[in-house]
Amino acid sequence: MFYTIIWLFFCYGFFGWVLETVTATVRSRHFVNRGLLDGPLCTIYGIAGALLSLVLPELRGNWLFLFLGSAIWCTLLEWIAGHILEHSPYGKWWDYSGIRWNLDGYICLPYSILWGVLGAAAVQWGSPFLSRIYGLLPGAGGKVLLWILLALTFIDGVGSLIALYGRQGTMPGLERVDSQITVATRRLQHWISITTRKRLEKIHGKAWEKAEKAKSDVFAQGACFSKIFLLFFVGAFLGDVTETIFCRVTAGVWMSRSSVVWGPFSLVWGIALGAATALLYKYKDRSDRFLFLSGTFLGGAYEYLCSVFTELCFGTVFWDYSKIPFNLGGRINLLYCFFWGIAAVVWMKGFYPVFSRWIEKIPKKAGRPAVAVLAVFMTANMTVSAMALARYDQRCRGVEASSSWQEYMDEHYGDERISRIYPNAVRTQGNEKGEETE
Fold first, then answer.
1. Residue 212 — φ and ψ, nearest 5°?
2. Is 209's pLDDT higher than 80?
3. pLDDT tier at 168 (50, 70, 90 boundaries)?
4. Contact yes or no for 65/79 (Cβ under 8 A)
5. Could you give the CA distance from residue 215 to residue 110 in angstroms, rounded to a whole number?
6. How many domains does the chain have?
7. Which of 173, 204, 235 delimits the end of a domain?
């Protein structure tokens, strides 16, 4: 499956580049490369196509939900990409302000409908067809081709990012690198950055100079990484505690609701809290209705993605809403989507300002190392948890331990401990039968 997804990424990225470039060329009457990369690839189209092909194939035939899922995910990706690219020296890369039903010019309803139609067609017909094309390639040859394309795209991407966010001029320290391969790679990246910068300035105009921000004595001001990470950490802890108490009150039992093997942390809640803050920070002063609708759609899309991701990676379903009315494949349901919307309003209007003030009161000297330590801890925690679940999946399929990490997981994270940490985890039917995935 990994190589198929990579193949789809390149196919849809190329198709998107053709679509954007042809459209821009016809409008301007001369060739215009609309991609960020110098190569014929629009990464946002590639990511969108690969993501939809990974997340929504079970909705094939259900045109309404396939359309809605495609529209929501493509719109969300365009919204995120618009915010990220706006922080480059070239400002906004597109502006829908002149189109009705737009949101700050980043997204608009007509294009969301278009993305829904194109995404549904891609999932229904395009991805199966492209997957069959990849299947016709020689096994080893196809994989080698994809790794070559990944390497070239990585070099192109680094060079383009240098052009987008880096400084002009020669790359410092280039002559001090010993490895000839490294020197050649960096020179190629530097050449790409210069070429990309000239092309972007031709399309978007001369880059404006960023004014140097005044230094502040406040720790984690605004929606910076440190604040988002601390909110993720606190949200993961509070989410686990809340779910544990909820299970006690409703079911009468104390049940682990943790997502990781070390400590009471629910990653679903932590990631949701951090992501919601990062995405909605700019709109924190908007109406409650706006935040509710945003939280409903974002929360539903996020929970659906988490359900598909855990099932594909670990062959396990951690929740099932099949018995709740208005559910979609047991992964999400309308009532809980409304809960996400309510939570967005309560968080952004009530709790976020309080937590933000508390975090900003942390001394800088203590805050930065604390964030670094917690980041290392959670990274290790998630890595070990992923390895424990992967090994649990292998044991359920009868795969014997053949390496040191498998033996370590069998010794320290056996079936009994995994069942205690993840009591609601249910093996999917295909994996219970021992079916292998690509």
1. -70, 125
2. no
3. very low
4. no
5. 42
6. 2
7. 204
